[in-house]
Design goal:
By secondary structure, the protein is α+β, with helices and mostly antiparallel strands. It has one domain. 24% of the residues lie in helices and 36% in strands. The protein is built from 3 helices and 5 strands, in the order βββααββα. It starts with a strand and ends with a helix.
């Protein structure tokens, strides 16, 4: 299997609504703290977002889930869930079994 499921430990995320949809940025992994104000948040996170217009930002805790190719830069976008079980179910339902 080229792409493998990856579930991050429970941590802080920025949930960002952009013109490209909902995007998640792992704040703890990047050592970031969200500043006050939408414009300041958008400026801080812009290098980590696909969208170039930020409509809202909120901080949340949860488990990140995505597929990743070990040794490569290939990966899907993060999705964040309240429980590890929800994260695992999302990966199973969305990506299924590649075999």
């Amino acid at each position: 299997m080229f792409m493998e499921p990856q579930i991050a430990e429970k941590e802080r995320w920025a949930e960002v609504e952009t013109n490209c949809g909902t995007e998640f940025v792992p704040l703890e992994q990047l050592g970031l703290t969200l500043p006050d104000g939408l414009e300041a948040c958008a400026e801080l996170l812009r290098d980590y977002l696909e969208g170039n217009r930020v409509f809202s930002v909120q901080e949340r805790e949860g488990y990140g889930a995505r597929l990743s190719a070990p040794g490569y830069l290939d990966c899907t976008e993060w999705a964040v869930f309240d429980t590890e079980e929800e994260a695992r179910a999302y990966l199973d339902e969305t990506y299924g079994d590649e075999d």
